[in-house]
Design brief:
The chain contains 6 helices and 5 strands. The chain has 201 residues and is an alpha+beta fold. A hairpin with a 3-residue loop joins strand 1 and strand 2. The chain is globular, with a radius of gyration of 18 Å. The two termini are 36 Å apart.
Length: 201
């Protein structure tokens, strides 16, 4: 019996000469791994990082390994790879999800947030801001005390920018000043995560 999942690809790597190892996130099952055979010809729907896809899975007769029987791309976010900085921030966000998704209780909410964030990486030329908001909303959704614990210790010179970046839509054409502020705020939040949470980052 096939298990059909709508999922986002968080990691794609080769497994031997014949398979791709896919680490994906779905609204139904959360984080999962599967293997897809690599065809000899270049396939139209060859899995790519950050794809949202419909994946038809079949479990091996022996063991629990899941194999991809059909893969249909729903949303290919190839634009992310056209900017090194955007690719770097999006990959870091995907790694954050892949390391921690298995321990998060509501895969449907997590999947929805992941889709919105990767779409924003595609649509906005402001990767550091998208990353900051994605991480903040992830922490907030998982119940971490970011408002109670992180906000009060933000440096005074970054507080106005933090309120603007977190509470307002991501600007389409951000200034260099606001981009630099977003990077500093993101670094500050990352230090807080390492100090105050058990998340792997």
């Amino acid at each position: 019996m096939l298990n059909v999942q709508k999922a986002i690809l968080l990691k794609v790597s080769t497994s031997g000469e014949s398979y791709l190892n896919l680490h994906a996130l779905s609204a139904d099952d959360g984080s999962f791994y599967c293997l897809k055979r690599i065809g000899k010809k270049a396939a139209k729907d060859r899995p790519d990082l950050f794809d949202t896809a419909e994946i038809h899975l079949e479990t091996a007769k022996v063991g629990t390994t899941q194999f991809v029987r059909e893969y249909r791309t729903i949303n290919r976010r190839s634009k992310i790879g056209q900017s090194y900085q955007t690719l770097q921030y999006a990959s870091e966000y995907a790694n954050l999800l892949s390391h921690n998704a298995a321990h998060m209780p509501d895969p449907a909410v997590l999947f929805q947030l992941a889709e919105r964030t990767f779409d924003a990486f595609t649509e906005r030329d402001a990767a550091s801001i998208v990353s900051l908001k994605g991480i903040y909303l992830l922490l907030l959704g998982e119940g971490y005390p970011v408002r109670e614990s992180w906000w009060p210790q933000i440096p005074e010179n970054l507080r106005d920018a933090t309120k603007q970046l977190i509470n307002q839509p991501t600007p389409e054409e951000p200034t260099q000043e606001i981009l630099e502020a977003s990077e500093a705020i993101r670094e500050n939040l990352t230090r807080w995560i390492k100090r105050e949470t058990e998340m792997i980052i």
